[in-house]
Design goal:
This is Calreticulin. It contains six helices and 22 strands. By secondary structure, the chain is an alpha+beta fold. The strands form five sheets. Strands 1, 3, 4, 6, 12, 13, 14 and 22 form an eight-stranded antiparallel sheet that branches. Strands 2, 5, 7, 8, 9, 10, 11 and 21 form an eight-stranded antiparallel sheet that branches. Strands 15-20 form a two-stranded antiparallel ribbon. Helix 5 runs antiparallel to helix 6.
Length: 430
C-alpha cells in the first residue's frame, strides 16, 4: 500500500529531472568552435595589416614539430620578427544573462624571446582585411612573454570604449607543450581563469579591474579611540615582586671549594673560593602575563560606502561579439593556435580539454625526442666549430712563423734566411 502511494511521486520526480536535464541541454550553446580541420580557410580571413611594409607574417596549417595527434592541426605563426593578424566571423551573440566561456589552446614551440600568444573578441563592423593592432576589441585574453621577466597572462576588458587590464599579476605557462587557457565570466560579474582545466585564479570585475570606483573605501577621517586596547596580554597586577628579590646575587662562592694546602696567605694573599652560579638567582624579575580582558584586537581603519560609486548591473555585459581574432607580434615565430571555443557551458569546455590532453604523454615523448635531436645537432655543430677554430689557429701559427723568417730575411742576407727557413719548416710543431 505504501509503495503504491510513493510510486506516482517517484515517477513525477523522474519526469522533473529528465525535463531539467533536457532543458539544460537546450540552453547550453556552443557559439563558435574552431579545430582548424578541413575548410578552415573559408572561415578565416588573413589580414593585410603591415604587409605593405614587409612586416606581415604568415600562418602555417600544421600540428607542429611534436604533437599528441599529428592529424590535429592548428595555425602556427611563421617567419621571425613579424606581425600576425587573422580573424573569423562568429554568430553575433551577447553574454547578457548567461555565462561566457572563452577558451583556446596554444603551444610555444619556439624560444619565443618576446611576443604575444593571446586571442581577441571584437564587436561592431571589422574590415577583416585590415584587422590589426589598432582595431578596437572588446576582450583580450592570453599569454605575453618577453625575456625572462615578462610571463604575463593578459586579461583586458573593454567598458564604454576604454580598455581595462586586470590588476592582478598572473603568469602564463612557458614550456613548449600544448596548454589550454580558459576564461569564464558569469552574470554576477565573477570570473574564473583556468589553465589546462584547473582553476588558476578567480575574483570579480568589481574588485580586480579599475572599471568602476570601488563600492567601499576606507574612512580616512576615522581615528583610533583613545581607550582602544591592542595589547592581547598585560602584566598580572596581582603578581608582586617578592621582598628581597633584587638582592639575590647572580653568583655565590663555591661551598665545596677548599683552600689548597700549598696556599700561603703571606705570599699569596687572602684565599677566596671561586664563584659559581647562584641556583637561587632567577634573573631580572618580570611579572606574569595574563589575557587582557579589554583586548579588542588590532585597530583597523573602517570601510564606508563610497559616495562616488554608482553600480552598473550590466558591468559584465560585453558589446555584442561578431569576430574572434589573433593579432600578435613575435620576435621568434612558431606558436600553434588551436581548439578555439566560445560557449556558455564550462563543462563542455572541460570535455574539450580532456579530449585533447588525453594525448599529452605522446606529445611529451615527441618533444623529448625532438630535444635529443636538437642537442645532438648542436653538439655536432659545436664540434665542427672547435675543429675549424683549431685548424685556423694552426694556420695562423704557420703564417706567423713564415712572417718571422721573412722579417729576418729583410734584416740579413737572403741566403742565410732560406737556410734557416728550410730547417724550421722541416721541424715538427711542439
Amino acid at each position: 500500500m505504501r509503495v503504491s502511494k510513493l510510486l506516482p511521486t517517484f515517477l513525477h520526480l523522474l519526469s522533473f529531472l529528465a525535463l531539467f536535464y533536457l532543458t539544460n541541454l537546450v540552453i547550453a550553446e556552443v557559439i563558435f568552435e574552431e579545430r582548424f580541420d578541413d575548410g578552415w580557410q573559408s572561415r578565416w580571413v588573413k589580414s593585410d595589416w603591415k604587409r605593405a611594409e614587409g612586416k606581415a607574417g604568415n600562418f602555417k596549417h600544421t600540428a607542429g614539430k611534436w604533437a599528441g595527434d599529428p592529424d590535429d592541426k592548428g595555425l602556427q605563426t611563421s617567419t621571425d620578427a613579424r606581425h600576425f593578424a587573422i580573424s573569423a566571423k562568429v554568430p553575433e551573440f551577447t553574454n547578457r544573462n548567461r555565462t561566457l566561456v572563452v577558451q583556446y589552446s596554444i603551444k610555444f614551440e619556439q624560444d619565443i624571446e618576446c611576443g604575444g600568444g593571446y586571442l581577441k573578441l571584437l564587436s561592431g563592423y571589422v574590415n577583416q582585411k585590415k584587422f590589426g593592432g589598432d582595431t578596437p576589441y572588446s576582450f583580450m585574453f592570453g599569454p605575453d612573454l618577453c625575456g625572462t621577466q615578462t610571463k604575463k597572462l593578459h586579461i583586458i576588458y573593454s567598458y564604454q570604449g576604454q580598455n581595462y587590464p586586470i590588476k592582478k599579476e598572473l603568469e602564463c605557462e612557458t614550456d613548449k607543450l600544448t596548454h589550454f587557457y580558459t576564461f569564464i565570466l558569469r552574470p554576477d560579474a565573477t570570473y574564473s581563469i583556468l589553465i589546462d582545466g584547473r582553476e588558476r585564479d578567480s575574483g570579480s570585475l568589481y574588485t580586480d579591474w579599475d572599471i568602476l570606483p570601488p563600492p567601499k573605501i576606507k574612512d580616512v577621517t576615522a581615528k583610533k579611540p583613545a581607550d582602544w586596547e591592542e595589547r592581547e596580554y598585560i602584566d598580572d597586577p596581582n603578581h608582586v615582586k617578592p621582598e628581597g628579590y633584587d638582592s639575590i646575587p647572580r653568583e655565590i662562592p663555591d661551598p665545596k671549594a677548599k683552600k689548597p694546602e700549598y696556599w700561603d696567605e703571606e705570599e699569596d694573599g687572602i684565599w677566596r673560593p671561586p664563584k659559581i652560579p647562584n641556583p637561587a638567582y632567577k634573573g631580572k624579575w618580570k611579572p606574569k602575563k595574563i589575557k587582557n580582558p579589554n583586548y579588542k584586537g588590532k585597530w583597523k581603519v573602517p570601510w564606508i560606502d563610497n559616495p562616488e560609486f554608482e553600480d552598473d548591473p550590466d558591468l559584465y555585459v560585453l558589446k555584442p561579439i561578431k569576430y574572434v581574432g589573433i593579432e600578435v607580434w613575435q620576435v621568434k615565430a612558431g606558436s600553434v593556435y588551436d581548439n578555439i571555443l566560445i560557449c556558455d557551458d564550462p563543462e563542455y569546455a572541460k570535455q574539450v580539454i580532456a579530449e585533447v590532453l588525453s594525448n599529452r604523454e605522446t606529445e611529451k615523448e615527441g618533444f623529448e625526442e625532438a630535444e635529443k635531436v636538437r642537442k645532438a645537432r648542436e653538439e655536432e655543430e659545436s664540434q665542427r666549430a672547435r675543429e675549424e677554430s683549431e685548424r685556423r689557429r694552426k694556420e695562423r701559427g704557420h703564417d706567423r712563423r713564415r712572417d718571422r723568417y721573412r722579417d729576418r730575411y729583410n734584416r740579413h742576407d737572403r741566403h742565410d734566411y732560406l737556410d734557416d727557413y728550410h730547417v724550421s719548416s722541416n721541424t715538427p710543431d711542439i
